[in-house]
Amino acid sequence: MILPAASRLQLTSDLNVCRILNGMWQVSGAHGRINAKAAIESMFKYVDAGFTTWDLADHYGPAEDFIGEFRRQLAANRGQEALSQVQAFTKWVPRPGKMTKKLVEENIDISRQRMAVESLDLMQFHWWEYQDKNYLDALKYMAELQTEGKIKHLALTNFDTEHLQIITEAGIKIVSNQVQFSLVDRRPEVNMLKFCQQHDIKLLTYGSLCGGFLSEKYLGKPEPRGFDLTTVSLRKYKNMIDAWGGWLLFQELLSTLKQIAEKHGISIANVAVRYILDKPAVGGVIVGARLGIAEHIEDNAKVFSWNLDPEDSDRIDIISRQSQNLYQLIGDCGDEYRR
Fold first, then answer.
1. Domain ranges, ordered by start, for the chain
2. 78-93: per-residue pLDDT in tens?
């Protein structure tokens, strides 16, 4: 299987990425046990299929270690040059407080060592508390480490538009911001998309499949209750669906997506991902990879084989207009983490 050219994005001059990123939150422990050997073997399957870009974090359990071991095995089996085909984007999520160059550098070095890289492809920074302005110091020190070659590019995770603007105006070059964006959660459309377009910042989106709810598995099914929600993703996105408009409206959405999917010979998940990929400023969609447990490589590849037509988008938007305004309920991107 070879993915088409449309599956790639030149994110920066030196980073050519797959527009579907393999999300590694699923190895954090909150989604069940992961067998390390099976996980690494699965990573080879993803990369060989063209899904070469990984999204992870310092706190996603062994995710950074998996990248490091995968890189070692890839180099041993296929030579050092094969490493250039793989991109791994990690995150640093510090506790708020005073930031020093030493503290920042120590944490960056830990990620570099775990991932077996000289320079981190993309460091996606998250900050819990906006009232603590030390996030600007952290970013300035990371920019220094970028100059020193320990980080290639700086990015953000779950920053709202206001604070993305503050950071940009401080002269810190941000490549991307990772935010929740789906057919259920369309908050980025309010302010974030326009700002990112104006400042050449890409969005990397997560939650675009609502933890798996946006699939045939839940079409026509009764509303799941607590004991049915077996992973942290399902619990998180069920709450989002409830706030958005509830299970009955969600079933209307799934039914419409199924009709669109059948028309194009694809899956509901393909429709949900394609819709978000087509939005301006969206660079890529992160799709969770339950390494060694469940793979959707062939289905994910179909995202790049078709396009939504205007009628498809209109049908989806009609249902969206019946939902609650999540921007008014929750706030801008990432505000759910700072309430």
1. 8-213+270-307
2. 999 999 999 999 999 9
